[in-house]
Amino acid sequence: MKFLFDLFPVILFFAVFKIADGNQEAAHALAVQTLGWLVAGGALTPAQSPIMLATAVGIVATVLQIAYLIVRGRKVDGTLWLSLGVIAVMGGATIYFHDEKFILWKPTILYWAFALALFVGQVGFGNNLIRKVMEAQIKLPESVWPKVNVAWMAFFALVGVLNLFMAFVVFKDNFSAWVSFKLFGVTGIFFAFIVIQTLMLSKHIQEHEQGDA
User: pTM for this one?
Assistant: First the structure.
């Protein structure tokens, strides 16, 4: 459920884009009516409308995520605040300039921000942020935690690069394909990384448990 909750804005972005892309005339009318006042020059083409609507929904969905947690009295993770900041800035620029290039950069900026936060936390403050997130679920030897932090740091940095490659090289003329990659491709990559990392850490987890025993 938490995984689906975290993916909520991405899923809505995907769904709204696909529906709007298949009904561009209706999407154009809706985009002009709801977003026209936010667009520089006030002019949107039918082809741009699905992107604009999906971006606006993505921003609203992230705001609703945070509002839901606050109303329920739950802690809002720093990653969610960061995600809101990035999508508000890059999504807002996408709508204002009616240019999808800004939203294409959004995942990369977010992943690189995560990587930078892990680096600064470890090197600048001696604070292993990945350990703080994962330690409640798994116990590892002290010497292993810095390696796990570096692995996640490298992963976020590389996924950020991969997003740019897919957005501006592989799918440079096919925004719809990039939207599908953003949901299914990146999610699959995250799952694969977690599975691989779990298998690699399983030995250390067993050793640590035996040591505690």
Answer: 0.89
